[in-house]
Structures are given as C-alpha cells and as structure tokens.
Amino acid sequence: MKDFQIQAIGLMSGTSLDGLDVCCCTFRQQAGKWSFHIDCAKGYSYPDAMKQILGTGAQTMSALEFITFHSSYGKFLGERVNEFMQEFGVHPDIIASHGHTIFHEPQKRIMYQIGDGAAIAAETRIPTVSDFRRLDIMLGGQGAPLVPIGDRLLFADYDFCLNIGGFSNISFEQDGRRIAFDISPVNYVINHYCRQIGLEFDRDGEIARQGNICQELLDELNGMDFYHQSGPKSLGREWVETLVYPMLERYGLSMENMLRTFYEHAAWQISRIITARPLPDGNGKLLITGGGAFNKFLIERIDALCPCEIVIPSRQIIEYKEALIFAFLGALYMADTPGCLASVTGATTDNIGGMLFKI
C-alpha cells in the first residue's frame, strides 16, 4: 500500500461508566508501518440520568424508548465532539465511534452499541464510522475485542498488552497470529460495590487493601466455567450480573474482605494467562493501560503474581488508549484495511466492520 496519512477522532465509552473519552490522532503509514501521534484528548462525564440509562436502564426500555435514546445519545456524542473541536482547533477527516455497549450475547449473534452514528455525522458534519462489531458477530465471531489490531500495529514493542477497564483483556502474538480475549471483570464489579457506599471507585485500592482474602470465595470465583474455556471468548455485563454478583454476595463478607478477595481473583486470572505462555528472553514486557492502571493495590498484586516487567505508560496513553485505537479503526476503515482479526474474535474471516455516515 502506498503511504497514507489521516487525522481521526475516536470516541470510547466503556462499561465502567467513567464517561466519554475523545481522542484526536494523526496516523501515518509509511513503508508498510503505522505510526501515530495523539494531537489532543479529553474526557467528558455523563449526566447522572444518562449514566443510569447507560448502566442498566436501556435494557428494560420499550423498542420506541430505546431507539429514541439511541438517537439522542448519538446527538450528545456529536455535541461533545463539536465542543472538543472548538476547544482544540481541530477538524479531522473521520470520526470513529465505539458507542456504548448495551447488549453483548454473541452466542445469539446479538450485540448492540447505542449511539447513532448518523446523529454524530449530522451534528458534526464530519464523516462518521460506527457499529464496528456487528459484521464480526454475523460472521460467527465474538465482535470483541477490537483493540488488538492497534496493539499489533501501534504497540508492537510489548510482549503483552493488557487493558484493565470494566473488564480486563489481553492481546499477544502467538505463532504469527494475534491472540486476544477477555480475562475477567474488574472495574465493572469494583465500581458497582463502591457506588453502594457512596463512592465512584476504590481509589488506589485502599478499601480492598484493608481486607482479608476469603479463600473459599476465591476458589469458587477461580473455578467458574468461563476461565476454563479456550479463546476467542468475551464477557458482558449479563454474565457478571447473573453469576458473579450473586456469588460475591452469598458469603456475607464485609466490603473490605469482599473486594480484597475479588482483587486477588482479578490479579490471579491475569497472571495465569501470562505464565501459561512461553516468555521471550528475559521475562517479557507487559503494557498495562485503562483505568485499572491507576489502582496501585491492583498493580501491586499483578506485579507480585506476574513474571513480566510491568510498564505503565504516560497518563495520556493509560486514559485514552482505547479511544486512540478506535480512531485507528476509523483510519483502517478509510484505508480499506481489516480491523477485526478472525484469530482474535473467532469469526470466519478478517473483516472491515463499521457503518459509514457521510454528508
């Protein structure tokens, strides 16, 4: 492919409900190699009412209410992009929007990210790509994760790329193929219980640090069927709400002890995946991004259990890597290059997911 350059805005909203991440990047492909520069990035919080709907409210809406919110949330995204462009003085070639996941049941070929790309394009007057996952689902894939294409092409210096958000997911090269999958829930569970005591999250893991491990609960968590499945595999809120919450609450533990046990579970599952792989000379390098990278106690537990050198990048990369890679997916779409890897999702073939809205 000839040299290619594009500026793209990526929009990311994760299951941990931290807010909307907006990242504007310039991507270049020269001599077959991709590079990137983050031009500007910013996070936007959600109004409380919108956060409630994105959390669980949308799942119980009528069809009319759902499609109405799909449109209004898309308009909200477009308005935030307009604010962002005005503040930073940018006007990208393309917007790539993840949307916000409401349903994730790939075994039924069901996945829905709310946030109408047409509304974003109409609001911003900039070509917008959204709905990146649906084609992969229809090709028999998980529709997730999508970040590994960015790990492969933009972060190739690392042996493992770990993102810790609502769920933890990992990607790495194995026999010339990119392998990636979800590992376990993390912030989706931690933040859920923190909200019950009036907190948004467990800052630095200080609540969990005060607790003790319940070995019986830890063994039950680690014994769940999902952890014994081979990839490709992915997790959604339905699995957590149906299986994990009832298990955690059945033991009647204090908040400190329950979270301490859950932290150990999350760290142990991450280390189990890494130690099962042949490591390169030395111990290999593990890049950790996502909100969990700021959780000191969680990182301490991963470091204690993992043989790799842990690399915590700049705050900008930690906070905006997923939005950066969705911007990259927009760039790949415009370059007519697959962003969904069959080796990662389990689809029958690599594919170019997404729907383009252009004025």
TrEMBL record:
Source organism, top-level taxon: Bacteria
One Pfam family in the UniProt entry: AnmK
Major enzyme class: transferase
GO molecular function ontology, one term from the record: ATP binding
InterPro entries linked: Anhydro_N_Ac-Mur_kinase (IPR005338), ATPase_NBD (IPR043129)
Keywords associated with the record: Kinase, Transferase
EC numbers on record: 2.7.1.170
Gene3D superfamilies: 3.30.420.40
Entry's Gene Ontology BP terms: amino sugar metabolic process; peptidoglycan turnover
Protein name: Anhydro-N-acetylmuramic acid kinase
Source species: Bacteroides uniformis
